[in-house]
Amino acid sequence: MRVRRTLALTAAAVTTMALAGCLGQQQESDTGRNADAKDVTLTVTANAVAGGKNELTAKWVTDWVIPEFTTQQKDKGVNVTVKYDGIGVDDADYKAKIALDFNTDIGGDVVEIDGIWLGEFAQGGQVRPLDDVVGKDEVDRWDGWGEIPDAVQAVGEFEDKRYGIPVGTDGRVIFFNKKLFAQVGLPADWQPTSWDEITAAAVSLKQLPGVIPMQLNAGTAMTEATTMQGVLPLLASTGAEINQDGKWQGATENVKQVLDFYQQVYGGKLGDPLLAQEAKGRDKSFELFAQNKVGMLFESDYFWRSVVDPTVGVAKMADRDAAVGWAKIPAMNPGAGVGGQDFVSMSGGSVRVINPNTKYPQQAWELLEFMNSAAATKARLGDTAQVTQRQDVNEEVLQNDPMLSFIAEEVLPITRFRPGLADYPKVSSALQQATADVIAGKSADEAAAAYQDALVKEVGEDKVARG
Amino acid sequence: MSAATNRTRDTSGLGVARAVAFVSPALLLIGLFLVFPALWTIYIGLTNYTLTGPASVAPAFVGLENFLGALDDALFGNALWLTLVFVLGSAVLGQNLLGFGLAWVLRSAKPVVRRVVEALVLLAWILPSVVVAYLWTAVLDRDGGTLNALLGNESTAWLVEYPMASLIVFNTWRGTAFSMMLYSSALAAVPPSQLETARTVGASGWQTVRDIVFPHIRGHVLTNTLLISLWTANDFTPFLLTAGGPNHESETLPVFIYQQAITNGELGYSAAISFLLLIVNLVVALLYLLLLRRRS
Amino acid sequence: MTFHAMLRRTLYTVLIAALLAFFAIPMLWLASAPFDSDPGVGLRWPDWTLDNWRITFEHPYALGSLLNSIVLCAVATLVTTVLGTLASYALSRVRIPGRDALLYVLLLLSSVVTGTAAMVPIFVMMFQLGLINSQYATGLVIAGGMLPAAIFILKDFIDSVPRSYEESARVFGASPGQVLLHVVLPVARPGIATIMVWAFVQAWGNFLLPFLLLRDVSGQPAAVLLRTLKDEGGSANLTVIPVFSLLYAIPVVALYLFVSKRYGFRFHGGIKA
Question: Which structural domain range is residue C138 located in?
Answer without folding.
Answer: 61-263
